[in-house]
Amino acid sequence: xxxxxxxxxxxxxxxxxxxxxxxxxxxxxxxxxxxxxxxxxxxxxxxxxxxxxxxxxxxxxxxxxxxxxxxxxxxxxxxxxxxxxxxxxxxxxxxxxxxxxxxxxxxxxxxxxxxxxxxxxxxxxxxxxxxxxxxxxxxxxxxxxxxxxxxxxxxxxxxxxxxxxxxxxxxxxxxxxx
Length: 178
Description:
Layout: H1 3-10, H2 15-22, H3 26-33, H4 40-50, H5 68-76, H6 85-98, H7 104-133, H8 140-166
Helix pairs in contact: 5-6, 5-8, 6-7, 7-8
């Protein structure tokens, strides 16, 4: 039985009444009650009309159980590969998909590595130009690479400690690339 159907019937609403209350077409409500998952604006408006949380209308709610040890392993799997930027993204991504730990936190971890790698590459390749502009005699490229690695290690370890203690990441993004 569809969650939408259950909540609609509990409130003794017809599909037409729910349509008028939510602004969603009767046909869309019929499709959702037949098994289609509501998304985005439709989910938001139906939840608002029924006065329930959006997750309560989903037929397969998000699994609340989280394997924090596996998430910590996925996070720490970037450490051995901080010198080889594509691998510090690829290894956690592969573990994430093969272990089917595809949740917001793991996506955030991989996205954080992607963003950090992009920033590091841009700064790394712009450092020779900074050398010339400021007439610096020593190779700035090596210093930039070392600092990028140290900061990446710091981010990974800080997040691992935070996941272990609080069950959430300390450094995260408000978006993800995945």
